[in-house]
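W.,

You were right to be curious about this one. When I first looked at the sequence I had no strong expectations either way, so I just let the prediction run and decided to look at it fresh. Below is the sequence, 136 residues in total, followed by the output.
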Amino acid sequence: MDLPSRLATLVVKNGVAIGLLGEADRDLVLALAASAFGAGHDYREAEVNRILSAWLDGPGAMLRTDHVELRRWLVDAGFMARDGFGYAYVRGPAELARAEALLGAGATAELDVAVAALRAARAAQRETGRQAYAES
């Protein structure tokens, strides 16, 4: 699966502040984060926190944020819905459609593999550059 080119550029960076991203870039990152959740399943806040923490350690490692801020962004930007009491979170049909419009209909595993492949290619490119510099 190919990521949108702008998202491919973002996932190889470090220390990206979600609040400083432009709306289009932020939506791409949030759509990627939302892909960690199955559609139509109710999640309790603790489960959402656990999933987002793991996501930030993996595909979301480019972000400089925590799971709480990311959870708020996902709800506020319409990539996840929260019940009126703040106890249950869901990625319903509207939220799923919003993410798919940005990323396509790929599975989470495919997105994670694409992110990992881009990061590995970028790391190899940096190492090649370091070696060339050391040899000159």
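Here's what jumped out at me. The longest strand covers residues 88-90. And, maybe more interesting for your project: The chain has a mean pLDDT of 91.

Coffee later to discuss?

I.
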